[in-house]
Amino acid sequence: MFKSKNTMITLVTAFIVIVSISFFGYQRFSINNKYENIISEANKAMGSEQYDNAVKLYEEAMNYKKDDNTKKQIDLAIVLKQSKSIYESAMKQMANKKYLEAIDYFNKVSKQDSKRYNESQSKIAECKKSYIDYNLKNANDSLKNSKFSEANNYIDLVLKQDANNADARKLKDDAAQAANIKAKENTSALGDKIMLTEDQAFELVKSKVKINEKQERLFRYSDFKNAPKIADDCPYYLIVKDAITPSGDEDFTEAEYQVDKHSGKIKECIQGQCKEIN
């Protein structure tokens, strides 16, 4: 009787242990199964570039199991989302022929975004070529219309990107020669009229143009070191206004003033657009 009772207790205890192990085993299996299913869905979202959804799913998976790889995937999804947005902005700028702005965006595409990063490197080269071709065409058109200052502005934009560009350097020489020929033609038509001196031309411009001495400066073109020489028979003196950067390390041309040597008339040229200011 006593032995039978002990056997019964042993069987009941064994049954409880087996049921408990089965329950916790099933629960663990269920959790792992849910985790794997969510991770699978998150990976699919990543593959289809649904990065917000991928982050949401990875974070949900972390509720079932803390895992460093899952955390890394969340960080990667955030990087890829931003990189994709930057790439799309670059493509829009490129489509609008804003090549330098596009290059700036392409340079910000993450290396972790291998697909778009590799495409961006190709697009940067494409943008540089398009930018150079665009400005060379404009320089040629300006030169054909005897807009020498405008042509030089376009040429300088090319040389800033490619200092050794053969087409730009040839155009630079062509523009200088054409300007000299035009100047000789104009001088020939003027005849022997009384001429202003360069100093008189400078003072004339100075009296007409307001200068912020802290941010701008006015000087004669002849003061430029290594500047292409303007022919002596050019019908005007060239006075230049520069803007000075806060650091004082650099400056850039804001305007050019062509002072007729005979009439004293002043023509102001800004980015290729010229008008008389007398």
From TrEMBL:
Q: Which InterPro entries match?
A: TPR-like_helical_dom_sf
Keyword field contains Transmembrane: yes
- Give the record's keywords alphabetically: Membrane, Transmembrane, Transmembrane helix
> Where would you find the membrane-spanning parts of this chain?
7-26
Q: What is this protein called?
A: Uncharacterized protein
